[in-house]
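note to self: dont lose this again. the chain is below, predicted strucutre after it. 158 aa total, dont forget to put it in the shared folder this time
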Amino acid sequence: MTTFFSSRDSQLAAGLRIVLPAVWLGLIIGISLIEAPLKFQAPGITIPLGLGIGRLVFTAMNWVEIAIAVALLWAVLKESVGALFRGVSLGLMGVLAIKVALIRPLLNSRTDAVLAGVDDGGSSWHFLYIAADGLLIIGLVTVIVLGLRRWVVVRPRT
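---
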């Protein structure tokens, strides 16, 4: 039987199933949990400036998340992984799709309204975005642990 991927590809896929979720998790922690809240505390940052920076940063972050998700999808489909790993990974991609395709455009509209002076900026969409990131964090930690348990074999000392 001819196989499209070599065993080296399998090693690469196994490594990516751990590294990609870890990088994605670090991205969310760094941007959503650290940069975004601190940005508005910096001296001289106005609401319009902070919103403009936020839009650029989160748009770039979402594109990086999409690239990571596509590579992770390849690593998940590459070879047999457990049903839980596959399910959580696909769930991550679903949450990302909702975050990028539904919530992000609504937040961009709100940002436009705030910048135009038509809106005060209060929005429940931010809470949905935060909730989506919370789900991603839980899912990413789960797939990292599952990937490590499958890939790293710890033998008891004798």
